Amino acid sequence: MIDDLPKGFKAGAAAASFKKAGRDDLGLIVSDRPCVLAGMFTQNLFKAAPVLVCQEILGTCGTARAVLANSGQANACTGEEGLNNCRATQKMVAEAAGLTPRETVEGYRHLASVQFSQRRFEAGEETLQQCLALPLRDHDKMMCMYDLADQNMARERWQEVADLCQQILDSGPDKELRGLSGYLLGDALEQLGKGAEALKQFELARDEYPNPSVMDNRIAHLRNKLKKQAK
């Protein structure tokens, strides 16, 4: 442990034998409170996994409480496995540094959102699965599940969406999340060809959905659709 540091910071180094045994090549800095992030990155087109993950974090989170760095190994040209290893390392550092699940869950959700916007769906799903593996409060867990269901909706994985949303609804969510999950469940059921079940779900969620007029239009459209099918 390094003692000559600004107030509120702790730091340490260890010999992890990344390249040569017996020399310190792994360092960790931890702050008592969230700190503003900044970074300078290589312009090389072949960026290593840690560089890509750090850029994602910098672009989404804005603050951090811990920074881990190593020397002697770039972890470059490792593909999806390298990215997954970086995220697994993030989880281990969060646990070792004593960060609370609440301090890490928002980072995972922000990161998954960026990956989703970049259409890196597999990476986003892996990030949310790692988030769900944390010892979360029920509400935080349900929010990660909703994010995962939302991603699956874009990938047209209707049954996975329906299963996740039903699990959320069975777990006692708050009013807003109940409305959002109910709408997503109804949407998935309609895509699965279960129009009557979808209509029932839309009607149940109508008063709790943040934008009731959108739900009213969806209900009216589905009622007309079912009437035409019945003729």
What this model shows, in words?
The chain is mainly alpha-helical. Helices cover 58% and strands 11% of the residues. It is built from nine helices and three strands; from the N terminus they run E-E-H-E-H-H-H-H-H-H-H-H. The longest helix is centred in the C-terminal third of the chain and has 19 residues, at 212-230. It is elongated, with a radius of gyration of 22 Å. The model has no long low-confidence stretch (mean pLDDT 86).
**Measured on Cα atoms, how large is the radius of gyration?**
22 Å
Percentage beta strand? 5-15%
Poorly predicted ranges: none
Query: What's the tally of helices?
Result: 9
Q: Topology, pairings included?
A:
Elements (H helix, E strand, L loop, with lengths): L8 E6 L11 E11 L12 H12 L2 E8 L8 H18 L4 H17 L3 H12 L5 H17 L3 H12 L5 H17 L3 H11 L6 H19 L1
Antiparallel strand pairs: 1-2, 2-3
Helix pairs in contact: 1-2, 1-3, 2-4, 3-4, 3-5, 4-5, 5-6, 5-7, 6-7, 7-8, 8-9
Q: Which short descriptors sum up this protein?
A:
single chain, mainly alpha, 58% helix, 231 residues, elongated
Quick overview of this protein structure:
By secondary structure, this protein is mainly alpha-helical. It contains nine helices and three strands, in the order E-E-H-E-H-H-H-H-H-H-H-H.
